[in-house]
Amino acid sequence: MATETKGKIGVTTENIFPVIKKFLYSDHEIFLRELVANAVDADQKMKALAVSGEFKGELGELNVRIVLDEDAKTLKVIDNGLGMTEEEVDKYINQIAFSSAGEFLEKYKDQIGNIIGHFGLGFYSAFMVSKKVTIDTLSWKEGAKAVRWTCDGSPEYEMSESDKKERGTEITLYIDDEDAEFATKGRIQTLLDKYCKFMPVPVIFGKEQEWKDGKYVDTDKDNVINKIEPLWAKKPSDLKEEDYMEFYRALYPMQDEPLFHIHLNVDYPFHLTGILYFPKIKDKMEITRNKIQLYCNQMFVTDSVDNIVPDFLTLLHGVIDSPDIPLNVSRSYLQSDANVKKISGYITRKVADRLEEIFKNEREALEKKWDNLKLFIEYGMLSDEKFCERAMKFCLLKNTEGKYFSIDDYRKAIEAEQTDKDKKLVFLYATDTEAQYSYIEAAKNKGYDVLLMDCELDSHFVNLLETRLENTRFARVDSDSIDNLIPKAEKVKPELSDSEKADLNTVFQSVLPKENNYYVTADNMGEDASAILITQSEFMRRYREMSAMGGGMNFYGEMPASYNITVNMENPLVKKIMDAKLAGVKPAEHVEDAPKDATEEQKKAVEAQKNAAAEAHKKDLEAFAAGNGILRQITDLALLANGMLKGKALSDFIARSEKVVSDAYLEK
Ligand code: ADP
Ligand code: MG
What we know:
The protein is 41% helix and 19% strand. It is of the alpha+beta class and 668 residues long. Helix 7 packs parallel to helix 9 (385-394), helix 14 (498-509) packs across helix 18 (600-627) and helix 19 packs across helix 20 (647-665). It is elongated. Residues 34, 37-38, 122 line the site of magnesium ion.
């Protein structure tokens, strides 16, 4: 390998061929793109000579023909462009091409291992797949003689006279055995479709075929590869919506219709044209990246643009064409390229411009398509600061009734009702209209509005909005009682002594399922409200959700779920249970503290006595709870309302309910 000669790659014609073969093995197919590109160039230069008047003869129909002989394993690329004289072959093929490849390798010697994509060795990439290459060429110039150049992959070449009669260049590749795939019709057709679909002169490969007498036969019509027009090269004002849709279907035959498109067109400070489409994205599973195709003057380069556009834009589909994106270098180099940075910023800005325009002028269409666009916008806002700033204007919020609002409009709509006593605006949201139905209803009954946040990214998105919006807080409807979610004034809390609080806790813990953590508190929620409300703290739930999504806070993810059990002291059933407890459970036995001068032994004895008293009291409370069917019943009802009653607990509940009902009905 060349790098073995200490520190310096001495590129000579002797070692250029092994380098070409070795390092480019993964990308052998680009040879065809390079040769067709040269042929297209030659045609276009010829056309320019005719237009300028320098050439006055018959131009003919300029095209590029690909001719394959599967048996002889030869592949020809033939153009009727300007051709080359003997001096030109010597200059452009023998000297320039060799030396520019040498310079190239010298310049990027450190990265030579990662050079994967666009090596761009031009003409010499033909040797990646050939054991021998010949050029037959006849220049357009008066009196020029046809030249034949032959090289078998060794550093020696031969030049002689050629019998070529027509103007232009014919390159013949003698495909080597390891690359025999490139001597098959199917492979060549695929490559031409991939790289040459939009080239600016007709690229012809054999004849169109038709089905006749039970098999495909050639017609006399040329098979033109590039039938579809490169729509992005046209003026947006000349195009209709349907043109864009048709073009999309030609690019992605199996995909759903896109939602919107953007036509990019810039001349300064770099050249870039293109059409980007917003695809329908319903959930994360459907995201397909690498749908944007990068072209350079209508020649396909790659469909992985991850270093050229910001990450979130790789979700878009479409075409970008720019001669200003360097194609000959490794991916890591691309990221630091100033032009690439400018291009990336420009595309982000254009996408935001277009969305803002849709927001202003096509609001109805935007609302209709929002659910399929939302994931893209939220992902963009979460991953790109600049885009986020712009998107705060056109991002929509959807409420549980299916109405859409801009963030600003929504703030204004809820301001009057949903500002709490500390002047904070509270955005209420639900993630599941079925599961959180009763909480949503409770909020609506208060005159509040509830947003629907049921997308995969919403837990992150809620955090983002909270940091972006001043004086604003988000609360999921089931994270507390509705009065506590938006507290309006200091309210009267139930007055319970410490021992009463402890008793309440013991009583309820003893009837709650063991696998979760519960915090039992008492509150006044009104006579008509249910006896028990189960909620999950907004904070805990968010961290659990985010760690489940891989947000890094794994500590919270591993903890058992914890819930708040709020006992409504004003509910008549609770009142009656509390009275029954008071009547049925004797207070804990009071044990005097040990005197100050007591011995260590005496102190221990008092401690043991205290523990025994507490243990006995706990037993009494648990016995009371176990014997009070209604206490268990109201607890289970609350669990049931949250889908937390399962298995044996559920079947016990049903049996107990039947008994309660029959007892009441049959007045036992
Ligand atoms: P590049 O295209 O980047 O200049 P290449 O190695 O592909 O590098 O080609 C080297 C040169 O050889 C071209 O610039 C052109 O002058 C000449 N050449 C290659 N192919 C043709 C062709 N089909 N017709 C005329 N000239 C050609
Ligand atoms: Mg070239």
